[in-house]
Amino acid sequence: MHRIRPFAGEPAAGPWTGRPIVDVCTSLLGLATSRTVAQGPPVIAVDGRSGAGKSTFAARIAEVVGGVAVVRTDDIAWHHSFFGWADLMRSGVLEPVRRGETVAYRPPAWVARGRRGAVEVGAGCRAVVLEGVGAGRRDLADLVDALVWVQSDADDARTRGIARDGGDVAFWDEWEAEEVPFLDEQRPWERADVIVAGSLVLDHDPEHEVVVAPAPASS
Question: How confident is the model at residue 1 (pLDDT cuts 50, 70, 90)?
Fold first, then answer.
């Protein structure tokens, strides 16, 4: 057993249990599907600190479930705002998804800066995974059917995040100065349906297992 030291203000989750990744992902899909009242596919939010391992877990859901569209908050936030993107996500992506529409959304900054492509959700997908810091924010909760919080060790998250950003410590500090108060106010871990360990807490087979803790309401 290893210990995760979460960020200040975020309680340490537990007890931790290793479970087959297939079971966790299919259970999440089933939960989200049972809750949705939309015409379109259910939406699963994967939230957590920067560098927590959200992208890794979102990719595992897509791999295990199949037919899943992954939408990244970073793509909506790109050259717009670290966290002031909820209206764009709502009107550009999630509301059309709920109506069962095909999405090919180009945020305003993409148009202004000539970024190619679009944020896409194809017709007939089984689920949409909304991944990124703030995916579980309150002002989008009415458009989300299940919420995962990825808890990470604070030192792990910093090391990973800085490495991912090419060693840019200044950018990490700028980001964290906004991320910490945003998450302190939002507290998505309190509304999570399952908490996933983004740092090593139990020895397990990462190819076939994921380490999880119960949601606060059920612990």
Answer: low
Burial annotation 165-181 (CB, 10 A radius, 16+ → b, else e): eeeeeeebeebbeebee
Cis peptide before 108 (omega within 30 of 0): no
SS3 call for 27: helix
In CATH terms, the fold of domain 17-218 is: Rossmann fold (3.40.50)
Question: Are 123 and 40 spatial neighbours (Cβ–Cβ below 8 Å)?
Answer: no
- What is the separation, in whole angstroms, between the first and last Cα of the chain? 19
Beta strands 17-20 and 209-214: pairing type? antiparallel
Give the percent of the chain with pLDDT over 70. 98
pTM: 0.94
Helices (H), the chain: 21-35, 54-65, 73-77, 86-89, 95-98, 108-113, 154-164, 169-186
Closest CA to 50 of 140, 170, 172: 172
Element (H, E) at 213: strand 209-214
Q: Where are the domains of the chain?
A: 17-218
Sign of CA dihedral 170, 177, 60, 79: negative
33 CB burial (10 A radius; 0-12, 13-18, 19+): middle
